[in-house]
Write a structure and sequence with these properties.
There is one protein chain. The protein has helices at 22-32, 51-56, 123-143, 178-189, 195-199, 276-283; strands spanning 8-14, 36-40, 59-64, 72-77, 82-86, 99-104, 107-113, 149-154, 193-194, 225-229, 237-242, 258-262. By secondary structure, the protein is α+β, with helices and mostly antiparallel strands. It has a single domain, classed as Endonuclease/exonuclease/phosphatase (Deoxyribonuclease I, Chain A, 4-Layer Sandwich). Strands 3-4-2-1-12-11 form a six-stranded mixed β-sheet. α3 links the parallel β7 and β8. It is 22% helix and 23% strand.
Length: 287
């Protein structure tokens, strides 16, 4: 009989400032105990990342910080994530900290913070679309890598009008532009499974609520945090949802953690290495 393996929980959370929201992060890690976490908008340089507090909570971490904005990190419960890429390929001049990739708990994870793109039209929107093109190119290689892969993060795209409380007042926003949505659709067309929408095909489910105009109390939200699974991993999807209680804490991020659970196979332990003494014992004649 195969041993029981609890589902693997993987989450993405735009923390909107890791230093100011560290107590929220630690409370969430303690209560929900995700196995892998992708963080965005650290808004802190590398040397200000609170690694000691995160290690004390039981997590190893990789991070790529930046002063005042951007910044991404991958946490792994009880393990050290193994870095495979730092920065999205395709533009050696791009210095913005928006992509980090690692292996943890048998899964390859691409943690991303896609550019917002506002105001549009303009150079920020052009950068968003150019970054998206680079992501699409890299994602195609990841999809066919033969590994179980998750792309997780703040994509800064509202995929359809069903993913926003009311699109009318957002029509000019970069998150809803036809070009942004077309890029997301092209990404999915590679075969990626949008986990949250797959588990909640008909539900108005949101991951972000603006701080202004009472968006949170009115549940006037947007779905812009996504977890995409390649064909090696999609059949293992068990559940997906949003930890809304985190958004209700004092001084929260404007995002809530979004998560999936995966049924993963048991990982076989490597056989113990025999010492010279044990080999002599094993081969000694029976008395």
């Amino acid at each position: 009989m195969e041993p029981y393996v609890p589902p693997l929980k993987l989450a993405t959370f735009n923390i909107n400032g890791i230093r100011s929201r560290l107590p929220i992060l630690l409370a969430w890690l303690e209560r929900e105990a995700p196995d892998i976490v992708c963080l965005q908008e650290l808004k802190a340089p590398d040397d200000a990342f609170p690694i000691e507090a995160i290690r004390a909570a039981g997590y190893g971490a990789l991070w790529q910080g930046q002063v005042s904005w951007n910044g991404v990190a991958i946490l792994a419960r009880g393990a050290e994530p193994v870095e495979s890429r730092r920065g999205l390929p395709g533009d050696s001049a791009d210095r913005q900290s928006r992509y980090l990739e690692a292996a943890a708990h048998g899964v390859v994870v691409g943690c991303l913070y896609l550019p917002n793109g506002n105001p549009q039209p303009g150079p920020k929107f052009d950068y968003k679309l150019a970054w998206f093109e680079r992501l699409i190119t890299h994602a195609a290689r990841l999809y066919t890598s033969g590994h179980p892969v998750v792309l997780a993060g703040d994509f800064n795209v509202v995929p359809t009008d069903e993913d926003i409380y009311n699109p009318r007042s957002w029509r000019k926003d970069a998150l809803l532009q036809p070009e942004s949505r077309a890029c997301y659709a092209r990404l999915l067309a590679q075969g990626w499974t949008d986990a949250l929408r797959t588990r909640h095909p008909d539900e108005r489910i949101y991951t972000f609520w603006d701080y202004f105009r009472q968006h949170w109390p009115r549940n006037a939200g947007l779905r812009i945090d996504h977890l995409l699974l390649n064909a090696n991993l999609a059949p293992r999807l068990k559940d997906a949802n949003v930890d809304r209680w985190v958004r209700d804490l004092p001084h929260p991020s404007d995002h809530a953690p979004t998560w999936i659970t995966l049924d993963m196979p048991a990982r076989r332990k490597a056989p113990a290495r025999k010492t010279a003494a044990s080999r002599r014992t094993a081969h000694s004649p029976k008395g």
